[in-house]
Design a protein that fits this description.
8 helices; 0% strand; globular; 82% helix; mainly alpha; 214 residues
């Protein structure tokens, strides 16, 4: 059961990455047509890994509203996500040396984005408290959005090879796609409990609006 679920989630991540990658807006903002085939492949790989890692961070989120039994299941499922995607690559005939590269990349990005959550949370708290007194509801909303923000920021950084100046529109496109995936998956995992996620959608819109005004 857990293997089947992991395979389904990993394929959902790949499909969402492909949808974003093929979108006209993303392709224009990332200037894909000007890039080499190898560089386009690198960008696509970063997108796939971003969606995979977002699933992993969501499955281990401390504020995920599920039972203890289900949380234990998610902990097991979390470990299977990279394995499931790598196994899919094997079925496609990907060579073993490239399989090893994928395993390293997923592990590296997971460690990086998980570590970055702390800085993202701190920055979000400063922004929120500057606008109004930070209450429990505000803290909960920040915690809810930390995974998708951390992954979006990191993915954008790697796609741009660190040169993110003037690339706000590209970031917003990445954030929008990852946020949609995150919210829809979280609703499914929590059994349709949408009230906190409704607040999260509002917070995401506010964040995007702030970036537009810069």
């Amino acid at each position: 059961m857990v293997e089947v679920t992991a395979a389904g989630l990993s394929q959902a991540a790949a499909a969402s990455a492909y949808e974003l990658f093929c979108g006209k807006e993303f392709r224009a903002m990332a200037r894909l047509e000007r890039l080499s085939h190898g560089e386009r492949d690198r960008i696509f790989n970063e997108l796939v890994v971003a969606f995979l890692v977002l699933i992993m961070l969501l499955l281990e989120a401390p504020d995920l509203r599920v039972s203890r039994e289900l949380r234990n299941y998610f902990a097991d499922l979390n470990k299977r996500i990279p394995e499931a995607y790598v196994e899919h690559l094997r079925t496609l005939g990907v060579e073993s040396n490239h399989i090893g590269d994928w395993e390293k990349l997923i592990s590296m990005r997971y460690e990086e984005y998980a570590r970055d959550k702390h800085a993202v949370r701190e920055a979000a708290m400063k922004i929120e408290s500057a606008e109004k007194r930070l209450d429990l509801d505000g803290l909960s909303r920040i915690q809810l959005l930390v995974p998708v923000q951390a992954v979006s920021i990191g993915c954008h950084h790697h796609i741009c090879r660190g040169n993110t100046d003037g690339q706000d529109d590209l970031f917003k496109q990445i954030l929008k796609s990852l946020s949609k995936f995150y919210v829809e998956l979280r609703i499914r995992l929590e059994g349709g409990k949408i009230t906190p996620l409704t607040r999260a959608r509002v917070a995401l819109r506010r964040m995007l609006q702030r970036r537009r005004r810069r």
